[in-house]
């Protein structure tokens, strides 16, 4: 890629410029990938033979619009009319993916796209790699039950059904989070461009930490994206802000991870008894706690060793002179 050795080596006053030149995908590459995604989604929804695709939601970094320049990830969540409950997607996934694979192969979409398209079918899943000259995004294709009503909102009964499905399937929490991909898209799309830039900076740092600690698993990038949103919502809420202050705030939150209990009540809250019990259970668990704003069963922050490693890295960056030369305090969050 075009990144310097590490984000640590970028002077504070050059961070904005660094994000524009090294972390944001170029508009041209982004447009080619967007066009390819739209073409694929249309092909999936236009087909007349079963399985009937009601809708396709875009998830992962691509759906959240937090794609890093170079290589990134995405999901194409395919809502199938035959799936009537959460457990159905687990049972029928293999057969559905076979049909989707056949459908996309028959369309010969690669002839119509400016981006290069490659598909891979393995026993566990189906991936589509879209690439342009400077950018590639690997999409996992995931069949899902459409859990939201026509208004696109969840109701308390949605989450009661989710809890029951997890219990019956003895599935791990978050197993059916893909059903709420549209909510994740909405959650991130309601935030300003500059916040997405701060997220890109935090993600680039996270990627470099992961390279350095390749044998250890660090907390997922999604957890840090949510933490960055939380820092901005609690401490700033301005469309335009000092990127260094924002960065310092996020690093300081990672440093104070033993105090972190982060959750939102935009899609669910404490009113319904089942949901309340799920939330209280999560909130009382060991810190740090970061709850997926779309799925109360999904704690995205589990993994204490990884958080400890990130804490060390965060302290290193905070101490480095590059940040010490920066003006202004961090935001007041905790």
How is this structure best described in words?
The chain has a five-stranded mixed β-sheet. The chain is α/β, with parallel strands linked by helices. 47% of the residues lie in helices and 14% in strands. It contains twelve helices and seven strands. The protein has two domains: 140 residues, Beta Polymerase, domain 2; 94 residues, Poly(a)-polymerase, middle domain, CATH 1.10.1410. The two termini are 36 Å apart. A hairpin with a 3-residue loop joins β4 and β5.
| Widest β-sheet, arrangement of strands | 1-2-5-4-3
CATH class label of the largest domain: Alpha Beta
- The rounded Rg comes to 20 Å
Shape: globular
Which structural class fits the helix and strand makeup?
alpha/beta
In angstroms, what separates the terminal alpha carbons?
A: 36 Å
Tell me the count of domains.
Answer: 2
Largest sheet: 5 strands, mixed
- Number of H- or I-type helical stretches: 12
Task: Enter the CATH topology name of the largest domain.
Answer: Beta Polymerase, domain 2
**Mean pLDDT reading:** 92
- Low-pLDDT regions: none
| Chain oligomer state | single chain
Secondary-structure element order, as H and E? HHEHEHEEEHHHHHEHEHH
CATH architecture of the largest domain: 2-Layer Sandwich
Q: Please state roughly what percent of the residues sit in beta strands, choosing from under 5%, 5-15%, 15-25%, 25-35%, 35-45% or over 45%.
A: 5-15%
Give the full name of the CATH homologous superfamily of the largest domain.
Beta Polymerase, domain 2
Number of strands: 7
Protein name: 2'-5'-oligoadenylate synthetase 1 domain-containing protein
GO molecular function: 2'-5'-oligoadenylate synthetase activity; double-stranded RNA binding
GO biological process, one term: negative regulation of viral genome replication
Organism: Myotis lucifugus (Little brown bat)
């Amino acid at each position: 890629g075009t990144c310097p050795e590490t984000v640590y080596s970028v002077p504070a006053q050059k961070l904005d410029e660094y994000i524009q030149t090294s972390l944001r995908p170029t508009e041209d590459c982004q447009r080619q990938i967007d066009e390819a995604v739209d073409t694929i989604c249309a092909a999936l929804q236009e087909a007349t033979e079963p399985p009937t695709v009601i809708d396709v939601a875009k998830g992962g970094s691509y759906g959240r619009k937090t794609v890093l320049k170079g290589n990134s990830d995405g999901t194409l969540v395919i809502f199938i009319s035959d799936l009537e409950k959460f457990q159905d997607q687990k049972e029928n996934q293999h057969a559905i993916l076979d049909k989707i694979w056949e459908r996309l192969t028959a369309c010969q979409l690669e002839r119509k796209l400016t981006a290069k398209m490659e598909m891979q079918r393995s026993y566990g899943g189906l991936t589509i790699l879209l690439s342009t000259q400077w950018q590639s995004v690997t999409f996992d294709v995931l069949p899902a039950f459409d859990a939201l009503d026509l208004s696109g909102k969840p109701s308390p009964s949605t989450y009661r059904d989710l809890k029951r499905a997890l219990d019956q399937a003895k599935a791990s929490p978050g197993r059916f989070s893909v059903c709420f991909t549209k909510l994740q898209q909405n959650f991130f799309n309601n935030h300003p461009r500059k916040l997405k830039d701060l997220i890109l900076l935090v993600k680039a740092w996270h990627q470099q930490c992961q390279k350095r600690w390749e044998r250890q698993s660090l907390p997922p990038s999604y957890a840090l994206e949510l933490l960055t949103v939380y820092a901005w919502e609690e401490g700033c809420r301005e469309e335009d802000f000092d990127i260094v202050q924002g960065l310092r705030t996020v690093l300081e939150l990672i440093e104070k991870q033993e105090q972190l209990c982060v959750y939102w009540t935009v899609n669910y809250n404490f009113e319904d008894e089942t949901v309340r019990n799920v939330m209280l259970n999560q909130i009382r668990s060991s810190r740090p706690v970061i709850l997926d704003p779309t799925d109360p069963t999904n704690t995205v922050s589990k993994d204490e060793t990884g958080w400890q490693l990130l804490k060390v890295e965060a302290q290193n960056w905070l101490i480095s002179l590059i940040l010490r030369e920066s003006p202004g305090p961090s935001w007041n969050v905790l």
